[in-house]
Each structure stands twice: as structure tokens, then as C-alpha cells.
Amino acid sequence: MRIAPSILAADFANLESEIKDVEASDIDLLHIDVMDGHFVPNITMGSNVVGALRPLTDCELDVHLMIENPDQYISDFADAGADMISVHVETCPHLHRTIQLIKEKNIKAGVALNPATPIEIIEPIIQDLDFILIMTVNPGFGGQVFIESMLGKIRKAKSLIDERGLEIAIEVDGGINEDTLGLCRKAGAELFVAGSSIFGQSNRSIAIDKLRGV
Ligand code: DX5
Ligand code: ZN
Fold first, then answer.
1. Domain extent at residue 30
2. Structural domains of the chain, count
3. Percent of the chain at pLDDT above 90?
4. Cα separation, 24 vs 106, whole angstroms
5. I need a labelling partner for 132 at 20 to 30 A (CA). Which of 1, 18, 116, 125 fits?
6. According to the model, what pLDDT value does residue 214 have?
7. β-bridge pairing 169-173 and 191-194
8. Is 128 a catalytic residue?
9. What number is the average pLDDT over the span 22-47?
10. Which pathway features in its UniProt record (predicted)?
11. What is the CATH number of the domain that holds 178?
12. Distance 159 CA to ligand 1 centre (A)
């Protein structure tokens, strides 16, 4: 299991020390939430922030694009140092092409699904994916409550992957804490994004240990 702290919940005035703080707990992935104020009702950060963080950390940078027309920005985020990029299926009328654009950059390609979007939508291109990001809240804000009915979607995703003998990671994002992580893990998730349950806590190493079930 891998844990990806979401810097959305970090102190933006001190991002470098915030990252060092979680890296001390053997974190190998950082989740970066990019929001455009159109696809989701919030604006966060762009590829310049990814570029600024890149030299500060050895962690893989997991960029979650919650933006319309992601094709236009994939190259910028990849060149800035993203190791993984996920796009929302709801924003991609030409999803196969978008996934190929990410892969041409030699980084991992993922598709994110809103809670109301059925998993079956990715079936035709599932073999092209490195990971599937199942939203367990409606995207746009940190600190929301986990939607329990998403556990069924995680189980379905796991069966679609296993039936085909594929190696695709299932990532979950939203409301992940020490109670919900175990439920998602049991359902088949392997990569856990956590914002407020890590950066919202004063002792991040205790928070990460709790998530790991230590
Ligand atoms: C929500 C973002 C999440 C967010 C999770 O739209 O995609 O990555 O940072 O925050 P928590 O863990 O606080 O629900
Ligand atoms: Zn996210």
C-alpha cells in the first residue's frame, strides 16, 4: 500500500518544509490537486508549482488534473516534472487520445472518475491505463466526508482489472482517514490520497503511522 499526502491541505506559505515533514515518514508519492474553477468550483495551482516543487523532493509527483481541456496542459505538467498524471473522464471526449498524450511523455497515465460516473466507461481503454483514480468525494475541496457507496465501484474496478490479468493500481481520493482507508484497501485500492488526515494534523508522522495501521 502507498500513501500520497495531498498538498492541498498543506500550508502554502511553507510548502518546502511541509514536504520535508511528510518525507521524513518514508512517503514516496505526493499528490498535487490542480483545479481550474470551471470543471470544479475552486482554483488551486498550475504547472509552475509542480516545477518549483520538483527539485525539492525525490517523491513521485502525482498530478490530479481537475480541469477542462486537459490535453492543452499535459505537456506543461510533464515537462515541469510530473511522474503521474490523471485526467477526469468527464472532461475528455477523446479519452484514448488524451491517455496517449500522457504516455508519449513517458509518465504514468491515469483516469479519474467522479462519484456519479460508472466504472464501465473506462472498459474500452482499460488496458492503456497505469492507474485508475476513484473519487470518494465530489472533487473540488479537501476535508469532505467519504462516500461509502464508492466501495462497490472500487470492487468493480478490481474485478475489471483482475479478469484481464492487468497490473493497474487503484487510487482513492477524498475523505481517506484511518477508518475509511481499511475499507478501501479491502475493496481493492492500493494507493491512498490523504489531505486533511495528514496535513491537517499537528504531528504528521503519527498521522501517517495511523493510516498505515501502525
Ligand atoms: C479533492 C481532491 C483531494 C483532496 C483530498 O477534490 O482531489 O485530493 O485534497 O482531501 P481530503 O483527504 O482532505 O479529503
Ligand atoms: Zn486529488
1. 2-212
2. 1
3. 99
4. 28
5. 18
6. 75
7. parallel
8. no
9. 97
10. Carbohydrate degradation
11. 3.20.20.70
12. 25
Express each pLDDT in 150-164 by its tens digit. 999 999 999 999 999
State the DSSP string of 107-167.
Answer: SEEEEEE-TTS-GGGGGGGGGG-SEEEEESS-TT-SSPPP-TTHHHHHHHHHHHHHHTT--
Share of the chain above pLDDT 70, in %: 100
Q: Which ligand approaches the C-alpha of residue 139 most closely?
A: 1
The residue type found at 65 is L
Give the bridge partners for 133, in sequence order. 112, 171
Number of H helices, E strands in the chain: 8, 8
Q: What are 197's three cell numbers? A: 488526515
Q: What is the pTM of this model?
A: 0.98
Pocket of ligand 1 (CB under 6 A): 6, 8-9, 31, 33, 64, 137, 139-140, 142-144, 173-176, 193-197
Known catalytic residue at 11: no
Mean pLDDT of 167-196: 98
Distance between Cα 173 and ligand 1 center (Å): 6
